[in-house]
Amino acid sequence: MSNKIEKEELRCNVVEIRSVSEGEKLYLNGYAAKFNTLSEDLGGFRETIRMGAFSNAIKTDDVRALFNHDMNYVLGRNIAGTLELSEDATGLYFVVEVPNCQWARDLHESVKRGDINQCSFAFRVKLQDWSDKGDIVIRELIEVSLIDVSIVTRPAYLDTIAQARSMDEVMAEYKKTKEPEFDKVKMAKLKQENRRRLM
C-alpha cells in the first residue's frame, strides 16, 4: 500500500567519505544514502530506499550540502554549481566543492584524517510503501524530496528525544494504513524496548 506524507526526516549512514584536493580547491565526496539496504530499527520499523527514489529530487530540488545539518555551515548548493548529486546502482552520490573558509578547511582535514566518516540526508517522503515481513515492519521509500546532504560527526537516529518523537509520528502514519491488522501489543513492546535503550 502506498501513501503520501510530507514531514521532514533525517537518516544517517556510515559511509566512506573522501577528501580530494585539486590545486587550491578542496572537495568532499561520498554516498549520502545507499539503495536496497535495510536500516537499523527506527522505532518499530526498518527502512529501505528504492533505486530511483532521488531521481526527481536531483533534477528539481534546491539541495544544500551542510555540516551537521546546520544551515549556518553550508558546504555547497546544487543550484550554485558547488554541489553535484547523482544516482547510481549503489545510491545517492555527492561531490561538493568545499568553500575557502577556515571551518570548511578544518572539516576537510577531519574527513581526510578519518575523524569524521558519516553522512546523513534530510528528506520529505513523497511516496512510500509499507509491508510486514514476519515480525519486521518495513517502510520502503519510493520517492522523496531532498532537503540536504550532510557530513555529520554523530548520527542522529534514536539517541535524541526529538528523533524518537519523529519515529513515533512515522509509525502513527503507518498505523493509520493498517488499523485493524496492526498488532498494537507488538508495537507497544517495540516502543518500550526503544525507550529503554534511550535511558
Description:
The structure is a single chain. It contains four helices and eleven strands. Strands 1, 2, 5, 6, 7, 10 and 11 form a seven-stranded mixed β-sheet that branches. The radius of gyration is 18 Å and the shape is elongated. Helix content is 26%, strand content 43%. The chain has one domain. Strand 6 and strand 7 form a beta hairpin.
Structural domains: how many: 1
Count of individual beta strands: 11
Spans with pLDDT under 50 lasting ≥5 residues?
157-165
SS field, number of helical segments = 4
Helix content: 25-40%
Largest sheet: 7 strands, mixed
Give me the secondary-structure category: alpha+beta
Average pLDDT, rounded to a whole number, is 79
| Beta-strand fraction estimate | 35-45%
